[in-house]
Design goal:
CATH topology of the largest domain: Beta-Lactamase
Strand order of the largest sheet: 5-4-8-7-6
CATH architecture of the largest domain: 2-Layer Sandwich
Largest sheet: 5 strands, antiparallel
CATH class of the largest domain: Alpha Beta
Order of helices and strands: HHEHHEEHHHEEHHEEEH
Radius of gyration: 21 Å
Length: 236
């Protein structure tokens, strides 16, 4: 379509293009210049500038030293969307139970399409040293939570098949001394979140049969049941 025709494009096409522009920003490319956006969208810099200005005025984009990045309104909308997820609204008592049983910090995360995002944290307040996990933080794809999401459909990476067999994933940082053990949370037959325990390397055992592993899987299964998931028996 020509640039002249674009100026009179239907509103729905303009919305679709604005959505495509916002979708260009990723974890790997959090900031983009006008030239980069124009190339990836296949339009002129003038067209991208027009859309970027409108999105900036709406708070969906912001100016950066390198061009543009996602704006504060995107964060507000994401928080609103996450708050509407049923798993977030019912998970509270289950996280509290997990903290009591495992004596560690419990973390609930959802998948944003590229990485896990922390949506709720229940801290263990009894320990002298506490590990702070921030709500809204995006976790690495290789984190325990990330491996859970990547192990199950629709991603289902073959190299993570053992995660499905074990029902848990473990990740650790030898430098920071922090470890995490995560398990899937199902709604019906789909993984909608991960439940994880975060602590020190000395306190988080990666074995599914350990005390913390057993508590994590039990609470994860109970939360999944609350969301309508019916677990199959080993012989099913």
């Amino acid at each position: 379509m020509s640039e002249a025709a674009d100026s009179g494009a239907p509103v729905n096409q303009s919305i679709a293009r604005a959505a495509r522009l916002l979708g260009l920003f990723t974890v790997e490319d959090p900031e983009l210049s006008l030239s980069q956006m124009a190339t990836r969208l296949g339009v002129s810099r003038a067209t991208v500038h027009r859309y970027a200005t409108a999105l900036r005025n709406a708070g969906l984009l912001r100016m950066t030293s390198s061009g543009y990045g996602l704006g504060p309104r995107v964060i507000e909308l994401a928080a609103t969307a996450i708050a509407g997820l049923r798993v977030v609204s019912v998970a509270g008592p289950f996280l509290e139970r997990l903290v009591d049983e495992a004596n560690e910090t419990a973390v609930l995360s959802v998948w944003d399409g590229e990485a896990p995002v922390v949506v709720r944290v229940d801290d263990n307040t009894t320990r002298t040293v506490r590990i702070n996990v921030r709500t809204g933080a995006r976790l690495e794809r290789d984190s325990a939570q990330g491996m859970i999401f990547r192990a199950y459909p629709p991603i289902a990476e073959r190299k993570l098949a053992a995660v499905v067999d074990e029902g848990v994933a473990f990740s650790a940082s030898r430098i920071e001394g922090i470890a995490a053990l995560a398990t899937p949370v199902f709604q019906a037959d789909r993984v909608v979140a991960t439940l994880a325990l975060v602590g020190t390397l000395a306190s988080i055992d990666q074995a599914r049969t350990s005390r913390v592993g057993a508590a994590l899987r039990e609470v994860g299964a109970a939360l999944s049941g609350e969301l309508g998931h019916v677990a199959q028996s080993d012989g099913a």
